[in-house]
Amino acid sequence: MIIKNVRILGGEPVSIRIADGVIAEVAPGLDAPEAIDGAGAIALPGLVDLHTHLREPGREDAETVRTGTQSAARGGYTAVHAMANTSPVADTAGVVEQVWRLGREHALCDVHPVGAVTVGLEGRQLAELGAMADSAARVRVFSDDGKCVDDAVLMRRALEYVKAFDGVVAQHAQEPRLTSGAQMNEGVVSGRLGLAGWPAVAEEAIIARDCLLAAHVGSRLHVCHVSTAGSVEIIRWAKSKGWNVTAEVTPHHLLLTDDLVEESPVGAYNPIYKVNPPLRTRADVEALRAALADGTIDIVATDHAPHPVEDKETEWSAAAMGMVGLETALSVVQEAMVETGLLDWAGVAQRMSALPARIGRLPGQGRPLEVGEPANIMLYDPSARTEVDPSAFASKSRNTPYEGMTLPGRVVATFLRGRPTVLEGKLV
Ligand SMILES: [Zn+2]
């Protein structure tokens, strides 16, 4: 199979020949009657998401492994990590193997289950981390995401435990007592609206503590969805010490701000903007962009969080927190980081494919598009302009904050080990 007329990382046009799921040749001018014409699209290694909520088992009304990975493929992803806050919680070898098996049977991309840190995400007792690591799912990323492992002793033990199998603890950094009942970012806007605020310090205090704990036990910490300028400073400091700390930012925290809660194209108090951690201020957005550009924040992760209509289209205080993100992630990153001159396409590939694969310890993903490497490839047309239409999403859920917005770029095709999962923007 040949994909012709593509520009790897935005370079000169070449053709890619694929044989047995592997890149067999990269050269200009290769052609064949049945070749797929990339029409000058940019070719990037298939994207890898370290933070996806697939909702199965338990909330198949919101998303399934099938629909969530269709959504991923449409976004250019070839691998996702499925968060553990399902029902039942993915806190045993049995549940992570169930999700892993669903992935093998029904998914359009690789599915790597994340294991819970504590039993039932309850923060009282460590889950069977070793059994999940040894299971068929070979779990390497552990997280109570949605909740914070706030007990310092449990967090220390988890960090110590995962060293045995080169795992990482991915923390949802949120001091629970400081955020109890919180509805949005604590600041000028929350004050005006009279909504209970979510102070930046609730995130920053846990990140600082966890960086110190990770250094103390010599383990690997990953910070989920960094959202404040102060968090960036702490992570920069931890990295300057040589500590093994990585961090992610979501596309929405790179683009949207908390004043949308007060005034937006879809009105005030629209729960489409309700998310955890909350949208912050313009100054936070600027700090997050700069941190992603300079490597302080390592990667972009979507925190794709599907919710059915009835859980989102309700009053602000009752609405579920979260946004879908897989199908718009690269367009939002183009808008926030590429159009602003902060990143080139090689930088995007690093932060949305190579580094997330490395943090998740996925040897067959995030590889450069070179001979001998697995043919995990996505083709992207950055010159397209697309109005976001949630009814066209493959996701079962529609809770996107970008509805009606015109975003740059379009995913043209996605190939998983040479097999097309998306062609001409449509699922195969
Ligand atoms: Zn989270």
Architecture overview:
The chain has 428 residues and is an alpha/beta fold. Helix content is 29%, strand content 22%. The chain has helices at residues 65-74, 93-106, 129-134, 152-162, 188-193, 200-217, 229-240, 251-255, 282-294, 309-312, 329-338, 345-359; strands spanning 2-8, 13-19, 22-27, 36-45, 47-52, 77-82, 110-113, 141-142, 168-171, 184-185, 197-198, 221-223, 245-249, 299-300, 377-387, 406-416, 419-423, 426-427. The strands form four sheets. It has an eight-stranded mixed sheet. Strands 8-9-12-13-14 form a five-stranded parallel sheet. Strand 12, helix 7 and strand 13 (245-249) form a beta-alpha-beta unit. Helix 4 packs across helix 6 (200-217), helix 6 runs parallel beside helix 7 and helix 7 (229-240) packs parallel to helix 9. The radius of gyration is 20 Å and the shape is globular. The two termini are 16 Å apart.
Low-confidence stretches: none
Indicate the proportion of strand residues.
Answer: 15-25%
Number of helix segments? 12
Q: Would you tell me the overall average pLDDT?
A: 98
